[in-house]
Write a structure and sequence with these properties.
alpha+beta, SH3 type barrels, 5-stranded antiparallel beta sheet, 3 helices
Amino acid sequence: MNFLSHWGIILAQASSPQGSGNLFASLLPLLLIVVVMYFLLIRPQTKRQREQRRMLASLKPGDEIITAGGLHGSIVGIREKQHTLLVRIAENVKVEIDLAGVARVKSIEERTKE
């Protein structure tokens, strides 16, 4: 047997399909990684986004909020067309902030501490 025919046989054996069971076993780790990433990364993030949208939709005048920049204030007015809020941060001091700038609404416990 010459050298080239020997390599031809080896290449033919390497490229031949080896059954569907082996294919599934080789793809199983990849599938497990995708499933783990979904439950650890993607699902919690979509849940947080859904809760944030729900919180923004439920804002009303009088709610006390904390902005993403750390300002604490009370909502005085809502401009839905511009997606902005008018927020009182001190006596006679009102600022207009973007709706997306609201980090969270103060809880009842936080309000009573002040």
